[in-house]
Amino acid sequence: MPVSDVRLKKFTVELDKKRSLCYDLNAFAEIEERFGSLTEALDHLKEFKALRALLWIGLLHEDETLTERQVGATLTPAGVVSLAPVIADAIRAALPQMDDETETAAKNA
Questions:
Q1: pLDDT single digits (tens) 39-86
Q2: What is the total count of domains within the chain?
């Protein structure tokens, strides 16, 4: 695995202040705990509660004391919907890029 594949990617969002979304291993564990799986979480991206949760999870790396309600208070419903593509992009950017050989090995594991 190239070293560049392990670098965390951050996406800047404007909420109460400039913040950065980052989906590290802790974030993915929180997603699994909350939704059961990443696929389930992404299936709910059109729901306000899920968007707020995924946004909050992506912000925990910079402030573990931040609450979901605090995140929700920084946005209107239209604001959080406009962030859905950014949340999805940030999550995708954190996932490893697999070549065919790696993907086959992962499926057979």
A1: 999 999 889 999 999 999 999 999 999 999 999 999 999 999 999 999
A2: 1
Q: What is the span of the domain harbouring residue 46?
A: 10-108
Question: Would you say 21 and 87 are in contact if contact means Cβ atoms under 8 Å apart?
Answer: yes
Number of C-beta neighbours around residue 57 at 10 A:
26
Torsion of the alpha carbons at 82, 51, 27 and 96, rounded to the nearest 10: -60
Q: Contact 57/47 with Cβ under 8 angstroms?
A: no
Host H or E run for residue 26: helix 25-35
Angle CA 11–82–67, to nearest 5: 65
Q: pTM higher than 0.85, yes or no?
A: no
